[in-house]
Design a protein that fits this description.
The protein has 102 residues and is of the alpha+beta class. The chain has a single domain, classed as 2-Layer Sandwich (YaeB-like fold). Helices cover 30% and strands 28% of the residues.
């Protein structure tokens, strides 16, 4: 998969207090780069805790649900567009199907 807006990961872990998230978010990024997903079931087979919401979005739980990454999916282009990166608490304050950025 191609991952669009990697800078959102960087911006998140560069915020004071979020430094500990870097290895986990970087691991998610590098893992997803190697994937060849064509269906939601492909993603569920890889990330059993992934959730699918409206507007073709998937919510990934990272580090045992400590962090959430919301991506828009484009299977045809083999692309994930990062829309949100945050903690579980930050995630609870947004609408996963509407969020556009960090």
């Amino acid at each position: 998969m191609r991952i669009i807006a990697k800078s959102r990961l960087h911006k998140y872990w560069e915020i004071r207090g979020n430094e500990k998230s870097e290895p986990y978010l970087a691991e998610w990024y590098h893992f997803c780069l190697k994937q060849d997903w064509h269906t939601a079931q492909d993603i569920k087979n890889t990330f059993g805790s992934a959730s699918f919401v409206a507007n073709n979005r998937v919510v990934f739980n990272v580090k045992g649900n400590d962090y959430r990454i919301i991506c828009a999916l484009d299977y045809t282009r083999q692309a994930l567009f990062i829309k949100f990166v945050g903690t579980h608490k930050e995630y609870n304050k947004i609408k996963a199907n509407e969020v556009e950025r960090l």
